[in-house]
Each structure stands twice: as structure tokens, then as C-alpha cells.
């Protein structure tokens, strides 16, 4: 493909991504896979160049552009070499009109800028767009740290036990140790949340928003084999991914339960006041994962954020009903916004006077508003806020 044809393909892919962000459709990564599957003529070099153009635009614009073309036109100021590719050549984008609209603005939407936790200053915000590292967790039930370090001598030990960083781009899925469940790909921040949840050695755990089971698997590896972890979610597709993962990891103490949206309490009634620990890894804005999913900025609106925080409150209240006296509730969001973090903890404690904050002792993170804050700049992790609360 010519450079102009690559640019046109990037514009077309951006149009798909913009529409999906507006309509709450597929992720940018999934769209890219489908896009290239329909264009098998694009070689590996073409695909790499197109993706680089697409993600340059996604990372640059905080507000959702009107179109892929406008987004690319906006990049010309910073990448002037793009201008000559808008020449109207075959398979390339049309020539630029003098009065053509162009995307402009900051990397972070104006309406979000003031909502970040007070610890998140300008260097912190810039780091939200760095390339995310590759973190792994060694599964002690299937291997040892020594065996993993022997397989990947370039691995760097991280702050938590059994956690390592590998060079970006390291291929793992085709390796025997990965296939046998010796390691899991998991950001250090997610590992930290599971580590905090496992600290009290709970026997019965409810992972209320389990998704694909990353934190359930981490908890299973950290807790005794006679513990029981119930992974619950309303998303059948995501929950179905747990079974093959737990078999690979030999996590026999995980059970799954599919919840009906709005009827979660009925499905979980048998656990009421019976859990030693409930993890609420709640749906959120995803501001802490912009390094991996920068198009999330294009999906979030003030109205959606309001609905999300209402859901978070409901999930905290629901989770708290499952905790027995002396048990714990761990609330976590991959967000750096106060409205989803510290505000939620303080409001929960106002609504539930029979609870108290428990100090979280970890080698990473910063104490913040009755919880702990992790960020890419300070900790090298995805951005997280989480808290540990005890039922009196």
C-alpha cells in the first residue's frame, strides 16, 4: 500500500471507531481486528503503519472527533508530512479544502480535567498516555518464580510477590509455561487489589463484578485451596471466559454464577451476610486505563458518568449485604476520578455507619481519601483507586 492509501485506511478505521464510541459498540482493538480481516491485502507493514496513524489520532484528541478525516487533518500541525498525503491520488484521501473543518483541542476533555484526584497533576496526566508495560503474575500452583525467571531471564521483579515486568511486545501465548497456566498477564495494580483482598485470608469470597475473572484467578492463587471464590457477573460472554482460564490455572476453588441485571440480590440471597470478603471491582470510566484503551475518552459523557456512579453506589450497597460481621468489602475502580473513588467510599460510610476503613499495607500506591491510589506515573501501574472496609 502507498502512504496515501495507508492514511485513507486509517481514516476509514477511525470512522468505525468513532461510531462505536458514540453508540457504545466494540472496542478499538476489536474493530481493528475486523477491519484488517476484511482487508487481507494489507501486509504486516501496512497494518502496523495504519494502526500507528489511528492510535496517534485517538491518543491526541480528548473529545470525540466528528470523523476520521477531521481527526487526521488535526494532526497535520504536529505531523506536517501528512499534508502531502491528502493529494486526491488513487486510494488516497481527497485533497484538502481551504475551509474544511479540522479537529482541535486537548488530550483530556475539558469537562473531565477538574475531576481528577488531587494527586494527579500535569506530569501524572501526561503519563496516562504512555505505552502500558507488560506485567505478569506467577501462578504458584503451576510453577515457581525460578522456573519463570529461567524462561524469561529479561523479566524484572516488581514490588509484589510473584510479579514481574517483561519487555513490551514479548510474545507469551505460544509459550508452554503460559499454556500450562504458570503465568497470567495481569497489571500490577490489579494484582495489588487481589493482594489486599487476600490479606485477611477469607474463606468465602464473592467477586461481584468478576468479568473474565482476572482478580478471581489472582485470589485463587493467593488463598488456601480450601477457600471458595464465587465469580459473579451479568455479562454472560465475559463470565464464560473464566472456565477455560481456571482450568489452565488449576483454580478448582472458583465457581461462577450469572446474574440477571437488576435481580442480583435474588440470585445472591443464599450468600447474604455469609461472605468473609466481597470484591466490588465496579464498572467505571476507565480513566486509569487510557494507556491501553485511549478511545474510552470518546465514550464517556457527563450523563454516562452520572449513570456509572449511580451503578457503583448500588453495587457497593449490594456487596455490603453479602458481608458477614467482621468481614470485608474491597471496592475498586480503574479510575482516577474523585467521583468514582474517594467520593464513593465516603458516601458509603455515611450511608452505612456500621463499617470502618481498614488500612491497606502495600509497597506501592499512595493513601488517598480512605483508600489507596495507584497511577502510571507514580507506580508504573494502570490507574486505580481502591479501599478496604470492615463490617462491624
Structural overview:
The protein has 392 residues and is of the alpha/beta class. Strands 5, 6, 7, 8, 9, 10, 11, 12 and 13 form a nine-stranded mixed β-sheet that branches. A four-stranded antiparallel β-sheet has the order 2-3-1-4, with no helix packed on it. The longest helix has 21 residues. It is globular and about 70 Å long. 42% of the residues are buried.
Observed structural traits:
alpha/beta; nine-stranded mixed sheet; 392 residues; Rossmann fold; Alpha-Beta Plaits; 3 domains; single chain; four-stranded antiparallel sheet
Gist of the model:
This protein is α/β, with parallel strands linked by helices. It has 17 helices and 13 strands.
Please give the CATH architecture of the largest domain: 3-Layer(aba) Sandwich
Number of domains: 3
CATH superfamily of the largest domain: Vaccinia Virus protein VP39
- The overall strand count is 13
Instruction: Give the % helix.
Output: 25-40%
Query: Which percent band covers the strand fraction?
Result: 15-25%
